[in-house]
Amino acid sequence: MMLRHIPFLKRVFLYSITAFGGPQAHIAMMMKLFVDRTPYITKEELLEYNAFCNLLPGASSTQTVTLIGYKRGGVPLAILTLIVWVSPACILMGAFSFLLPHIESQQLDRRLFQYVPSMAVGFLVYAAVKAFGISVKNLITWIIMLLCVGATYIFFKSPWIFPVLIVLSGAATNISKKRIPDFEISQKKVKWANAWLFVTIFLLAGFFSETSRKKDWSARKPLNLFENTYRMGSLVFGGGHVLMPMMYEQYSVRPEVRKITDPAGARNQIEIGKEEMTTGMGIVRAIPGPVFSIASFTGGMALKNMGAAVQVLGCLIGAVAIFLPSALLVLFFFPVWNYLKKYAIVYRSLEGINAAVVGIMIASTLYIMKDISLADATAESLLNLSFIICTFLLLRFTRIYSPFIVGVCLLLGYFL
Q1: Alpha helices in 17-138 (DSSP H)
Q2: pLDDT confidence of residue 159
Q3: What pLDDT, in 10s, does the model give residues 169-225?
């Protein structure tokens, strides 16, 4: 039965190798690839999925594309979708953990990616325009959208901002009691398997990691790596720009402090050099796919002194441990959400939630634009502005594939 989903998985693969710009820009690409080009889901469903995933910890764009697969083919296709989506980025970042010791960061040719931020802004503008037409229709949604634009822009780097805005916006549209769902509510049994699996892995990882540390097992580093990465994937809100500072503190800052305070205990700890870590943080922003794929890089770097085979294992541990909690959480909570939204209080919340998503998109566009030279009246600023406008126009008024736009952007960046 999976054979009929091969065209969908091909589309997911194209998305995985061309999705630049972080989770907000990823949503724009999903809208083009999975809504406009081939209607796998509706615009309303995509916005709802995105809003729902922003309420959960973990990789929101990964959870969103996983839900698209879940809608089309249940849990088996959701798992395949997740694997296809994360594999290219994780393989690339894992490979960099092998290559980095042999190259200098200054040797990395960054010209190839110089216009990627401008292209990402073009995608975001396109998504915001498309979403605006279906989500902002009355006074309350206008107010919610504008407030979310301001709050998101000011507190963009705060991990709590997205879930807080979505919850408050949903509460705001419950002031009105007019909208009531027109379908019956039938009692539904909650399937707890994914939730119990998530908790069990969390507790077992902590137990074995601490035991291996105290008894100094030979497998201490791989166990510590899995526990650290799984814990981060389970608790981080706010996406990759929150995850990376957490990893920097865990693997680069804390080991240096421990060497001073507890030299004996620091003997067999996981440590990644600050320069290596910051280089990896720069590389992951320049490749397509989820930013959480940096876990594959940190996994490889953490075990690089234990041999090539163990280093490959480290890359695999990092990739699995960072994305597994996201998948378990979203596949557990989404059926619950689908059931709860049949109640009037949740049904009315969707209007505010969708308006909040539009506000977050607009604020993300403005936030990225502030780091792009646009108003300097130089050749660079004119080129940046041209990339933004051309990307938007191609997406809005043509049926050109998004991967083609990305490829042209990379080539022009290299040669201009």
Answers
A1: 22-30, 43-54, 60-99, 116-135
A2: 65
A3: 988 988 876 666 555 556 667 778 888 999 999 999 999 988 988 888 888 899 999
Which residue range(s) make up the domain with 127? 3-415
CA distance 132 to 145: 9
Cα–Cα distance for residue pair 196/215, rounded to 1 Å? 28
**What is the tens place of the pLDDT at every residue in 368-380?**
788 787 777 788 8
Q: Rounded distance, CA 89 to CA 310, Å?
A: 20
Alpha-carbon torsion 119, 121, 125, 127, what sign?
positive
Burial 145-177, CB ≥16 within 10 A → b, else e: bebbbebbbeebeebebbbbbbebbbebbbeee
Question: What CA–CA distances, in Å, run from 286 to 93, 103, 150, 328?
Answer: 11, 17, 28, 28
Q: How far is CA 355 from the centre of its chain?
A: 20
| 105: enclosing H helix or E strand | none
